[in-house]
Structure formats: C-alpha cells, structure tokens
Specification:
Elements lengths: L4 H14 L6 H7 L10 H4 L6 H4 L5 E8 L5 E6 L9 H11 L21 H13 L4 H6 L18 E8 L4 E8 L5 E9 L4 H16 L2
Antiparallel strand pairs: 1-2, 1-5, 3-4, 4-5
C-alpha cells in the first residue's frame, strides 16, 4: 500500500490556505469542539508565576501565558485581555487533530474572517495542547514548521531547544505561539498576544522576557 501521508498533508494544506477563520474565536472554539471545561477552581490551587519584568513594560498591551504541555497546567502568566488573531491555522489544525479519523486529517471549518478582538491566551492554549497531543502523528509534525523568530531580541531565545509554531507581526502587533522542547524532554507552550505596540521591537522584548522567566521556573 502506498504511503497516504503526502496526500493527507496536501489536502490539509489546501484547507488551511483556503479557509478563513470565523468572526469570533470563542464561537469558533465551540463549533470545533474545543470549548474549555468550566473552571472548577483547581487552577487557583496551582502555583502560577507572575512576570514582574513584563508587567512593567510600557508601550505595549499584551497577554502572555506559559503552559506545561505534558500536564496541561499553566506555569506562568502576565497581562490579560482579548486580541485579534491572524493565525487561523492553529485552530484549523487543532480541529483536525481533535475530530479526525485515524487515517484522515481533513477538517471542515466555518467561514468569515475575524474582524474584532475576541481571542485570549487561554483560547490559544486550548488549541496548542490539542496540537501537542497530535505531534506523535507524522502528518502533524510535517505541518509544524520552525517559526521565523526574526532578527530582534526574540531570535536569541530557545538555544538548544526544538521550536515549533507561529509568529505573526504587523504595524502595531506581534504574536508568538510556540511549542518548545528541551534536550531533557521538557515541553512548554508559549503564547504571547500583543498590540498597541510603540514599536515592533517591544514585542520581541516581551517574548524574550517571557522566555527568561519560564526558563527559571
């Protein structure tokens, strides 16, 4: 039997490129079966580190979250709020993994592009954990590229780690959604949503501070 992986990957790539994301991230999550469970209060019992160095940053509005992908628990957070997200691939891929039969990675996704800020770091964390759970599948690994960290301060992070994920930047925003795996096998998810930047470099600085804080935990 011929290997079906290339065909499956091509079909998913076509879907990723041709399908815009829904207008509301929460409604998209609900439609894809990725709705978070109701808060049981357990998170309040976890030790979640704050990041004072980030909280003091001027010239940026942001929400940052680091999660332990092996347990699903958040380990550090800073900032808050809802943001526009120009990376629909993360939700489309998570949906594919969440509902796919064992031999298929072809999702069915609702349409209409996002027009208002409606995405939180917690929303992205849901999708990122699903994607991480699918990384044992060769087809998923083929779709996860090494992110372009640019030439700024963020390019200096994760030396010696394997990085997968997405980076998006614009005139006044910068987004990092990363899966980082250490040589020792530690697996972390990094989410930084930001806008109202005074300059693009401020987004890189925030990502560097987020990495430094998480690496010390």
């Amino acid at each position: 039997m011929k290997d079906k992986a290339p065909v499956i990957v091509c079909l998913l790539l076509i879907t990723l490129l041709s399908t815009p994301v829904t207008a509301s991230i929460p409604s998209l999550l609900e439609s894809l079966g990725l709705v978070p469970v109701e808060d049981s209060g357990e998170e309040a019992q976890l030790e979640i580190a704050s990041i004072p160095a980030m909280e003091e940053l001027p010239g940026i509005r942001f929400s940052a979250l680091v999660i332990d992908l092996q347990t699903g628990n958040p380990v550090a957070r800073s900032g808050a709020g809802e943001f526009s997200l120009n990376i629909p691939e993360i939700f489309i891929l998570a949906s594919s993994i969440n509902v796919m039969p064992e031999d298929s990675l072809v999702p069915v996704i609702p349409a209409e592009s996002e027009s208002v800020p409606s995405c939180t770091a917690a929303d992205v964390a849901i999708a990122l954990q699903v994607i991480h759970s699918g990384m044992e599948t060769p087809e998923v690994i083929e779709l996860l590229e090494k992110p372009d960290m640019g030439d700024g301060q963020a390019s200096s992070i994760a030396e010696g780690w394997d990085l997968y994920g997405w980076v998006d930047s614009g005139v006044d925003h910068k987004t990092f959604i990363l899966i980082a795996i250490s040589p020792e096998g530690r697996e972390l998810g990094f989410i930084l949503l930001s806008d109202d930047l005074c300059c693009e470099e401020k987004g890189d600085l925030a990502m560097m501070l987020l990495w430094q804080a998480a690496s010390q935990l």
